[in-house]
Amino acid sequence: MTTKKMAPPRSIGRQLNYTAGACNTVCQTILERYDLSLPQWVILSAVWRESGLTIGDLAAYSGNNAPATSRIVDRMIDKGLLLRTPDAHDRRTVRIEATKAAKDLSHLANFYEDINAVLLDGFSKAEADMLFVLLERAEQNARNWSGRD
Amino acid sequence: MTTKKMAPPRSIGRQLNYTAGACNTVCQTILERYDLSLPQWVILSAVWRESGLTIGDLAAYSGNNAPATSRIVDRMIDKGLLLRTPDAHDRRTVRIEATKAAKDLSHLANFYEDINAVLLDGFSKAEADMLFVLLERAEQNARNWSGRD
Questions:
Q1: For a tag site, which of A24, A101, A141, B64 has the least CB within 10 Å?
Q2: Residue A129 domain flag
Q3: Cα-trace Rg, chain A
Q4: A34, A108 in Cβ contact below 8 A?
Q5: Bridge partner list, A62
Q6: Is the pLDDT of residue B5 over 80?
Q7: Which of B23, B138, B141 sits opposite A13 (nearest CB)?
Q8: d(CA B138, CA A134)
Q9: Is residue A15 very low, low, confident or very high in pLDDT (cuts 50, 70, 90)?
Q10: Does residue A105 sit in the same domain as residue A127?
Q11: Chain A: residue nearest B144 by CA?
């Protein structure tokens, strides 16, 4: 058997996962230079922009659930990138703040633009716009299906 | 803070991961009815089509590395879906075969077409073709970057 013979048929699920996987490999290669993972960068991209966020805010922003977001934040606290501080008015609310070490990495705030430049190299503006629109429509179709299932 | 205020900027990396994630949720919802995970279905989609595949063949087909593929196959052997058999001519080569339980699920072989139908609902043929072409170009751009980095 050759893998060529076994070439899988045209599947949007496979193509989406292959393209996202190749994109994430580029992201990880760049972020490793700063000892960051991609989920950690996503959290930083929120706390660089706004202080006093809660775990719930960060979960909504990153698209992860709250327990997964908590685990990522815990690791980042261990690494000295984030601090947990109780809210001044409501001690039950914990707010997440960037440390100086995290602020020193804020030149990575526009990192996603570097990734856009790699992935969309050679794309016309119309092609790039079309890719976003079609991906958003496919995503919405999937979410609509999951919502009614 | 509202999540609306924190709407992240236009990032192809984020959009790819959101669309792939929404797609994988649809896949998992359907496959759970058959007690299958998506990586397990990918392996089945190979062994339904051809017998006598090796772990190396399955790794190449699925896009995973050999150790990850071995772990998935081991779980599927435990679940009674696959059998490991030594090659008749070369005892060092192990070949993976579908059990009767796996063959009984072969009506799922075209499952990816159901996913295409959900994700590409309302797409014209030209739009669907365009999405595949643009995703392949973005994937190739990412792989070219990783290859030269």
A1: A101
A2: yes
A3: 19
A4: yes
A5: none
A6: no
A7: B23
A8: 14
A9: very high
A10: no
A11: A118
The Cα A31–Cα A25 span in angstroms is 10
Confidence band of A2 (pLDDT split at 50, 70, 90)? very low
Handedness of CA A117, B129, A139, B22 (dihedral sign): negative
Q: What is the CATH number of the domain that holds A92?
A: 1.10.10.10
The Cα–Cα gap between A93 and A89 comes to: 9
Tens of pLDDT, residues A58-103: 999 888 889 999 999 999 999 999 999 998 888 889 999 999 999 9
Residue to mutate among A16, A25, A26, with most B CBs inside 10 A, is A16
Residue B115, in any domain of the structure: no
Residue A63 lies in a domain: yes
Both structure tokens of A58? 């960060």
> Residue A88: its pLDDT value, please?
85
Supply the pTM of this predicted model.
Answer: 0.83
Give backbone dihedrals phi and psi of B58, rounded to 5 degrees, phi first.
-70, -35
- Residue of chain A whose alpha carbon sits nearest to that of B17: A20
